[in-house]
Amino acid sequence: MKWIKIIFCLVLIQIFCNAALFAQQRKKINFDDNWKFAFGNANDPAKDFNYSIATIFAKTGAAQKTAIDPKFNDSSWRKLSLPHDWAVELPFANSPSFDVQSHGYKPVGGDYPETSIGWYRKKFTVARSDSGQRFQIQFDGVYRDASFWINGFYLGNNKSGYVGVSYDISNYLHYGGENTLVVRADATQYEGWFYEGAGIYRHVWLNQYNPVHLDENPVFVYTDVQKDGAIVYIETSVQNESYTTSAIAVSAIITDRDGHKIGETVAKNISLAVNEKTTVKQSVKITKDRLRSLEDP
Prior knowledge:
mainly beta; Immunoglobulin-like; Jelly Rolls; 2 domains; 6-stranded antiparallel sheet; 5-stranded mixed sheet; 18 strands
């Protein structure tokens, strides 16, 4: 029986897996270092490393002679660490274009194709012994219209510069070998009237976890405050991406802001079939609740 235990604070919500199997293998690895960067071109595919719409839909491995190809030579590209905003590095441009105004009067937008496309590449390795784990790449923010590839496999596209995106890359990795992550950010369009920047301007993470795990953004908590205390309702999403049916137990503990336990659910035993995802609903009665306020936040 595997155990998934979730601890909540009335102010801060903390999620962790109690069993040694889960606790030792759940990792959030910072992926900000050792990137390569180069400008593409919004108008000329030859200057955009031969990128075209057809490249996205080409068979995997057919994007040769492009920056998507893992064998592409990026030795001349600039080395940098994230977060990175290439717009803030550019000189000011005196232009009536709203594209330019929304980028702080920097030469980014439809009138400046040579500084509106940015390419990022990163090489990394994953131990062969971790091939039984699941791996997810998480981008907290890329401005904007970003496309993603791993080892030449197209992962997807995220139009918004303000909504993060993540992809499961477990099945595309070369365990024990070199992997290549590629991002193309297109900042020719704007989303707001304020300064918006350009590039991978927030952190990137490699998440590693057990095949039986909490789902992404797994917990929804809401409360019913009553005269004699409060009832805290907890909904937890769990998923089984292993090759066998798995029996797990889900429980939750509520602590105060100092870490003292003030409530705990009864563990709920469930069985998850292969590739099954479900939501476990539980509740806890709190009799010594301490409601937050402006005076006592």
